[in-house]
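hi! just following up on the protien thing from before. the input was this:
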Amino acid sequence: MRSNSAIIKKLNKQYFWDVDLSGLGAPSAKRIIIERVFTMGDVDDMKMVISFYGKDDVIEVLRAIPYMDIKSFNFILKLFNKSAEEFKCYRQKRLKPQHWSS
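and the predicted 3d structure came back as:
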C-alpha cells in the first residue's frame, strides 16, 4: 500500500485542522482521511481519495462511520448507489433528533 503522506500533501489542510499532519502517515489514518474528505471535501478531492484507496476500501470505511451529517450521507448513497441500511450511521440514528434536523 502506498503511503498516506502522498495523498495528504494534495488535500486541503483545513480538513485536518485538529490533527497533527505528521502523524497521518500511517495506514491507520485511512479512516480519518476518507471520513474528512467525504464530509468536508469537494468532488475533486473525493475522486482523488477513491483513486488512491480504491472504491471498495472507501465504501468499507464509509459504512463503518458511526455518525455522518444527512447531506453527506445522501450524497454518498447516490454516488455509490448503495442503500442506507448498509451504513452504521443509518442503523444507529439518534433516538431523539436534534431540533434543526427534524
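The mean pLDDT is 85.
The chain has one domain: 4-101.
cheers
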